[in-house]
Input
Amino acid sequence: MHCSGHLLLPPGDATSPGGGFLIRLPTQEESIARSSTHYPSLMTATTQQFYHIRRSDKKRDFYHHALVHTHAAVLLRNDAGDWVSPYNVDVVTRTGQP
Output
């Protein structure tokens, strides 16, 4: 795996890509989804399989060892929501935290 030079490792929602960023929740995953091109990579058919497995888990046992790697997501905004000069970051989303 080739890295863009910057790596983000946010905790992620096990069943919802980008967590609650569409309703403006303020956590790490949502902030990254709002501030970069990371969210579209979570909506691909391949990545949706990752979430489908967790949504169909009737025991809600989300402690799996799978990760989602987004190579070279473009970061466009800072934590305050201000535009920044775009730069690439790799994002490795892990799920299943308590």
